[in-house]
Amino acid sequence: MPSITIIGAGPGGHIAAFEAARRGADVTLIEKEHVGGTCLNSGCIPTKTIKASADALENAHRLAEFGITQTEGDEARFRADMAAVVARKERVRQVLCGGLEKTCKSLNVRLLRGAAELGPDKTVIVRNEDGVEEIKSDSIILATGSCTVDLPSLPIDHEYIINSDDALNLDHVPESMVIVGGGVIGCELAFIYRAFGSAVTVVQGMDRLLPLPSVDVEMSRLLQREAKKRRIKLELGKTVKSAEVRDGKVVCELGPSPFLEGATGPDSTVVTDMVLVAVGRKPNNDGLKLAEAGVEVDGRGWIKADAGMRTSVEGIYAIGDALGPARVMLAHVASAEGLCAVANCFGENRELDYNVIPAGIFTSPEIGTVGLSEEEAVKQGFEVRSQIFQFRELGKAQAQAELPGMFKLICEKTSGRILGVHIAGAHATDLIAEAALAMEKGLTAADLAHTIHAHPTLAEGLYEVSEGWLRAS
Ligand code: FAD
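# flavin-adenine dinucleotide complex -> structure
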């Protein structure tokens, strides 16, 4: 049976380790910080745990809307107790990390703590407080992930100018916050901190929130409307040119974005309590000695790999965030890439198909996407027709007072084959799963419309939008 050494125990590395062990390989999983990687410790799970507190607070403020009032005394006043919010997040993190460690034990995965580097001839050198260990194996999987980016103009001091890691451990809610970056992380944190009561301004260099090819422009427009309703200030097409801490405040100079063609307008000054920088991620390659081992990287340091996760060195594979934004930087994609790499370590010849990747964005409302946006579908030469159905037309949305949102279905005009589905609204990140299955199986709008959906559910929106698509053709 092959021996496999995996560097990094995030969702890419630990899923690869478990799969390799279940197939009978001799597996060593090396982690220099926390098992679970970014996802469990400073990404998916901490943000969603804190979002659950933000949602609870928003719902508490809406109790009267549902006919719930206090029996006596003044109207209840609710606020976020950040020490308790962060403590809850820690408990969730520890439960999940502990679960992974137990699975390592039960599957006989050797979990080795320490910082790994590549040595000659498929050796991995691990340094930790016990000394130095050298491991030789048949295959190596690099699952080293990514970390926060610092901008020279916005030096992180972890107090006034913070990154997303800091934002998940704040001991108070700042009265005001400027978030630099209106991508997924910036938007999620904007809605969370607004719900906690902060006056939030989002500065985004492009002309829309979530300016990703995979996110349909209608979803961005809807989110922008919802942001405005919540009084989140949007500075689109702008950049923060400088930020200076003066007398306990941060003075930010805003100007037209250099990333948006034709962006104009006067410079302005915003004075805030805190600046959160959420402008992207960089590779976690420090000390890995990739170049010495002959593993090729691109101009920004992201590891180059083919669709079977093979790097430029035979027997060395790379998966997950370490491959950078040219692939898809999501936890479940890292895991899928891990399974693909393990299959190939066992001599299979598997490649990952990136066409059907569902994604969840945990704003308020949530956004779920799979497949192409309308713009991307047209760019790729498809003749498309799209259909929209509003959340407010669903009985369940009315019953639950979850009115903002829409379902958008993008299909090939003649065949009706589904090319993309984009949902904004309550539980959109769960609802997208049905669309992902439909796309994976190559289904059409008619297939979706001819599937009976339970009533009253939000999933009926998928039935309605596909039925609408059929009626309009
Ligand atoms: P990572 O999770 O980054 O893990 C890499 C691991 O390798 C780390 O633990 C690191 O310590 C270790 N390591 C690195 N170098 C070495 C070395 N030399 N020796 C030993 N160990 C090493 N994705 C989603 O799908 N859904 C979400 O809702 C979501 N929300 C997010 C929110 C935030 C704020 C952030 C920052 C990210 C979010 N992501 C989300 C992205 C997701 O966290 C990543 O895509 C995912 O964690 C990538 O997994 P990975 O295994 O490739 O790397």
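# post-check
Residues 3-147+282-345 form a domain with the FAD/NAD(P)-binding domain fold (CATH 3.50.50.60).
The two ends are 56 Å apart (CA to CA).
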